[in-house]
Amino acid sequence: MGQNTRQVGLQSVLIDTPVFIRASASIVGKKEGEGPLGEFFDKTGTDDLFGAKTWEDAESSLQKEAVTLAMEKAGLSAKEIRYLLAGDLLGQSIATSFGLMQFDIPLFGLYGACSTCGESLSLGSMLLAGGFADHVVCVTSSHFASAEKEFRFPLGYGSQRPMAASWTVTGSGAFVLSTDSGKRNAPRITGITTGKIVDYGIKDTFNMGCAMAPAAADLIRQHLQDFNREATDYDKIITGDLGTVGKTALMDLLKEYQIDIAPVHMDCGIEMFDSEKQGTDAGGSGCGCCAATLSAYILRKLEKGDWKRVLFIPTGALLSKTSFNEGKAVPGIAHGVVIEA
């Protein structure tokens, strides 16, 4: 067999055929709308129940609205979408299943914790590049109240949060990937690096930043090696939701590889909130954190030409209440997506 030029290094893929982020949409909660990025989101809820009776139904409505709006922006109907690639943080991905069933589109249900946005964009890109679809939609979501109920304590318990804790973002981001840009300045996905599970033995379920930082460091090291690039080849290297504590850990870990990304690093969890004014401790987290930030802010900077190339790295803590109660640690994973103007 001949050499496959799309396989790059040990963990990466070169997307050498046009894969455009044709359109996207972001829906967030009230607290997120009051943060530094508030003016950029497509829709901001005034009530985090979004008219639903439960937190889980509220999260489902986030995905439904985000997908609907993204398809409208792309000028496409549900019948023109070949696949949905979607996931969330809840057991059995119920926010996804109940939120998206009405679209009647073939679904790949995904789970990568808070890295699911990167996983969905990676797989969606490969589907398009391989000729298996012309249009796909990638969507993820999270909700502060449903995540607290699932993984920690229901809000009514009133538990005190440690300073290393991050605040799960109430939000969703949906992306229409297409072989047709639909507009001249649609950003392109040009490469992906798939992360590995990395476990440093972190058992603090509040300190997700330190649980995910080792996976992010490993991903960045491998990505730069696979593509033979330097950190300065990117306008921004953007992690998903490490927060302030996880960012410090990431920088320390990368020093061991003699890699310095500090001049170009950005973290969606840090950008999402004003931690001092909004009381969000270490920053934002959750599937909706990096997804909403990518849609509302990062793609906007690429479309305007402010940035030419970014490495987008959603990070995930593979936390299970079952494994935690059995004394196991919280492994991390990260997925890298190269997006160019």
Description:
This protein folds into two domains: 20-178, 3-Layer(aba) Sandwich (Peroxisomal Thiolase, Chain A, domain 1); 188-340, 3-Layer(aba) Sandwich (Peroxisomal Thiolase, Chain A, domain 1), CATH 3.40.47.40. The protein is 34% helix and 21% strand. The chain has eleven helices and 17 strands. The two termini are 34 Å apart.
Key words describing this protein structure:
341 residues, alpha/beta, Peroxisomal Thiolase, Chain A, domain 1, 6-stranded mixed β-sheet, 11 helices, 17 strands, 34% helix, globular
Summarize the structure.
With 341 residues, this protein is of the alpha/beta class. The protein is 34% helix and 21% strand.
Tally of DSSP β-strands: 17
Mean pLDDT comes to: 93
Strand order across the largest sheet: 1-2-10-17-14-11-12
CATH top level of the largest domain is Alpha Beta
What percentage of residues falls in helices of 4 or more residues?
25-40%
Assigned CATH architecture of the largest domain? 3-Layer(aba) Sandwich
Secondary structural class? alpha/beta
Stretches where pLDDT is under 50 for at least 5 consecutive residues are: none
Give the H and E element order. Answer: EEEHEHEHEHEHEEEHEHEHHEHEEHEE
Largest sheet: 7 strands, mixed
- CATH names the topology of the largest domain as Peroxisomal Thiolase, Chain A, domain 1
Provide the gyration radius in Å: 18 Å
CATH superfamily membership of the largest domain, which one?
Stage V sporulation protein AD
Question: What global shape is seen?
Answer: globular
Number of helices: 11
